[in-house]
Design a protein that fits this description.
Layout lengths: L2 H31 L3 H4 L5 E4 L1 H4 L10 E10 L4 E10 L2 E11 L4 E9 L5 E10 L2 E13 L4 H9 L5 E19 L2 E21 L2 E17 L2 E4 L5 E7 L2 E12 L4 E10 L2 E11 L4 E12 H6 L4 E5 L2 E11 L3 E4 L2 E4 L6 E8 H9 L4 H11 L2 E12 L4 E13 L2 E13 L1 H4 L9
Length: about 425
């Protein structure tokens, strides 16, 4: 090896050493500068569009986008103070949080508040890599009402048909968490919520509908592209339609692939109980049909819902009332019947029996006999009381069957009555069963 070659090798080694030293110094400078880069470099406004994720629910908000303008400051030795403002689905918000960096992980804690409301979200995020992370988020118990800006805005975007004067209020809370771990590199998540102390009222046509003290827990969980809805167990103190009320309302419902299965539902009604089993509800087509089993309802309250009847009655009635939701708009009753149990007795005191007497007169019964019957119905003890509702294409028929004895002064006579009168269901029953969607 000659001297010239030795000199070239020496120059090459010196240059290589200098290059390595410069790279090392540059790396050291970058490492020292990294904590300051987010502070020194301006961050452009961020924008995300959730239109695809929202799907049909996008119609409930003014915008499907989330925008954020970030302000980053150095905080703790290993963290940053981050402030953000922008719009969340059209609603202005402010957010503040802390981001911390470790040797192999990043942690963040944030609080997001919707301007002008009590709504806020607390969130925590912990990540080591794209396949090793976890998060938690919650909406603390928050009161809401018709005057709430968020609720009012959502209601303003809803197509409520003939529903007017809608008022709603209550308490809402939500908790969510999720994670992805190396052993299972697919995101898994879980959401749980609670609605309580909720009161809802509205007008459906000329009928007032009200729900008092509704409460229900709800939730869902999923892994990857699979999700599962949690069973629902809603409860309400009462659900009323004008003067027709259901009390202690409850249901047990589970989600199936295309519909909801109500395994059981019930309520108090007219002093007795109503129960429904195995009701399938298709939310997309809004179709449903089932049979309500009636147990021990008060005969007097039942008769009070038949137009034209005025008076008092005692005793209990039992039976079945089929119903179905038709064409997404109409709740209809099917062929139904109510009866008193054999061996049970009750009393009937009618001050006005117009529908019965009118039907008898139109059927050719003499006026004298009708007058005597009217007197008998004013104080009657029955052994058999039955109502049988049959629907036709254009009208309904209600058969009224009564068997007992009537007492006037010291005279007791047997009474056997079987009368059917016809008309539109709303002309027969004072329940207001027609609803727009």
């Amino acid at each position: 090896m000659d001297e010239k070659t030795d000199k070239k090798r020496g120059r090459f080694l010196r240059r290589t050493a200098i290059t390595i030293l410069m790279v090392a110094v540059l790396c050291a400078v970058l490492v020292l500068a990294v904590p300051w880069l987010p502070v020194l470099i301006p961050i452009p406004e961020l924008e995300f569009d959730l239109a695809e994720s929202l799907g049909e629910k996008a119609s409930l908000v003014d915008s499907t986008k989330i925008t954020a303008r970030l302000d980053v400051e150095r905080g703790e030795p290993d963290g940053y103070r981050v402030r953000s403002e922008g719009k969340l689905l059209g609603w202005p918000y402010h957010a503040a949080g802390i981001v911390r960096f470790g040797l192999i992980n990043m942690k963040a804690d944030f609080c997001i508040s919707l301007d002008g409301t009590d709504w806020k979200i607390d969130a925590h995020f912990d990540a080591k890599s794209g396949k090793d992370w976890s998060f938690k988020a919650s909406i603390p118990p928050t009161k809401f009402g018709r005057a709430d800006a968020i609720v009012a805005d959502i209601l303003a975007h809803m197509d409520m048909g003939s529903v007017t004067d809608l008022d709603a209020g209550g308490m809402f809370s939500l908790d969510a968490d999720g994670a992805c771990v190396p052993e299972r590199p697919v995101a898994a998540w879980n959401v749980k919520g609670f609605l309580k102390d909720a009161d809802v009222s509205c007008l459906m046509g000329d009928k007032t509908v009200a729900v008092d003290n509704l409460r229900v827990r709800f939730g869902a969980k999923g892994v990857g592209g699979m999700k599962e809805m949690s069973p629902l167990f809603p409860r309400a103190d009462s659900v009323s339609i004008s003067d027709f009320a259901l009390t202690n309302v409850f249901a047990s419902a589970r989600s199936t692939e295309r519909s909801w299965l109500v395994t059981e539902a019930g309520a108090g009604c007219c002093g007795g109980d109503l129960r429904v089993y195995a009701l399938f509800l298709d939310p997309e087509r809004l179709t449903a049909g089932a049979t309500v089993f009636v147990d021990g309802v008060d005969a007097g309250e039942v008769l009070s819902h038949i137009r034209g009847f005025e008076g008092e009655a005692t005793g209990r009635m039992y039976g079945k009332v089929p119903f179905f939701l038709k064409d997404r708009r109409m709740l209809r009753l099917g062929n139904a019947y109510l009866f008193s149990k054999p061996g049970d007795t009750g009393t009937l005191k009618l001050r006005k029996a117009g529908p019965i007497l009118d039907s008898l007169e139109s059927g050719g019964v003499a006026r004298e006999e009708i007058d005597n019957l009217e007197k008998a119905l004013a104080n009657l003890e029955y052994r058999v009381l039955k109502l049988d509702l049959r629907r036709g294409e254009d009208e309904a028929e209600l058969e009224f069957l009564l068997d007992g004895t009537a007492t006037r002064k010291k005279t007791t006579v047997p009474v056997n009555l079987d009368v059917t009168y016809r008309g539109d269901l709303d002309e027969i029953l004072d329940l207001g069963m027609k609803f727009s969607k």
